[in-house]
Protein 1
Amino acid sequence: MTAIAYRWNRTDAATAYDAAAPHIHPHYHVVQAAVLSALPRTVREVVDLGGGSGRLAEQILEEFPAARVTIVDPSEPFLALAEERLERFAGRFQTVPQSAQGEWRSDTPTPDAIVSTSALHHLDSSEKNAVFAACRAALEPGGVFINGDEYRPPSDAAYRADLEAWGAHMNAALALGAIPPSFGATIKSWHERNLEDFGGPRTSGDDCHETIEEQIARLYGAGFHSAEAIWKESLWGVVMAQR
């Protein structure tokens, strides 16, 4: 596979994030559980956008024994971790080295569900619109799109307070050893971008947070029949839309 320019295209960074993710995100397991609970029991073909090292895909394959999962992610080190993690499900999954805003549709079966966790908030406004339109077009009629992601509150004061609380959470987990020391530089960079430069301009790849209401409006704009928030806590939420 040809390498794609991407900040997680280093094996050490991908491995560190895979180990740290459940400790970085305070509601990591709750978000994934909400996504799983929202999937129709009849689901057969699932696309996981930004599926990384396959943690969510693993749970889908375990809980839905008739389902297949396609993991779409631009990081080859992440996909290598996913292939190792999912080895026991051989024949029921595939990996596609593409970004969510790339040409992944031609490499995936027609899905009846598209899921994503902690990925699409890195897209700018135009990219979100394009990805949501692509998801709507790719889905079977009646199919669902479920996004467990980071969402800001409308108030800047509340948004900054939530970011500060999350930053303190990551620092504490790092100090306790729950997050590998090698991930410390990434956390420092997060603080610089999101707190020291709070309110500064954001471009694709940054944390381009928006409110749940803004994302629901984008989903309706992309042509989805319905869209709603099914879970929300602090900076995290799960939004579900139906084609």
Note: The domain at 11-153+204-242 is CATH 3.40.50.150 (Rossmann fold).
Protein 2
Amino acid sequence: MEKREELYAGKAKSVFTTDDPDYLVLHFRDDTSAFDGKKKEQLARKGQVNNRFNAFIMEKLKAAGVPTHFERLLNDREALVKKLDMIPVECVVRNISAGSLCRRLGVEEGLTLTPSTFELFLKNDAQGDPMINESLAETFGWATPEQLAQMKTLTYQVNDVLKQLFLDGGMLLVDYKLEFGVFKGEIVLGDEFSPDGCRLWDSETREKMDKDRFRQGLGGVIEAYEEVGRRLGIEFD
């Protein structure tokens, strides 16, 4: 597979075309940002850690029957993925109250949410990724009712798999966001899964082991990511 020109550069990853129109190269950078890009930093090893972490999680989801865009690792920082027609709607599941949910509703952090909540957000940096609902997504053509239903089903399936996986490693999966796209008519998970895009707490101490360490200036960001990986059995070079 030949890597070609850069197609897109996001906040922490770059996407490159290949000689096969159905596949792309996903490059994980060391860039880290928060608060809509207002806080930025380079964290050594972050690209390698998230690339390896994501590959491990994608393989677990694939084994559980979740269709993903991930094909295989290419090197320390890159993975081969399917080229999807992305749906501009983020799916968020919350198992424990934290972050924007607490600010929005005035609830305390750390409440177990039963049942887990499911929310939709429009993928639009300029508008701050506003919260939306199924009706808005359908009216404005961002997603069809059938697509939304499948995205919700898959998001909860991911939750079932990963909540237990992290719990077995002594961690709580607090919340996370997922993006989906269409590949040859099928709804496919088209996102990475790493401590950048979810919240993870130690199940005993509730110490934060995710990107909140960067947001809140707690330090030890990559060390925490690596500890999460080690608890899951991931080997980092």
Note: The two ends are 24 Å apart (CA to CA).
